[in-house]
Amino acid sequence: MQELSYQQEKVKTYYTLQQQLDDLLTLYQMAVEEKDESLEPELEEGILALQQRLDGLELEILLSGPYDRNNAIVTLHAGAGGTEAQDWVSMLYRMYIRYGERHGYKVETMDFLPGDEAGIKSATLSFAGENAFGYLKAEKGVHRLVRISPFDASGRRHTSFASVDVIPEVMEDNAEIQIPPEDLKVDTYRASGAGGQHVNKTSSAVRITHLPTGIVVQSQSERSQIQNRAYCLRILQAKLLELKRKQQEDEISEIRGEQQEIAWGSQIRSYVFHPYNMVKDHRTNEETANTGAVMDGEIDQFIAAYLQKTKAVQ
Question: Which of 26, 75, 241, 255 is the most exposed place for a label (fewest CB within 10 A)?
Answer without folding.
Answer: 26
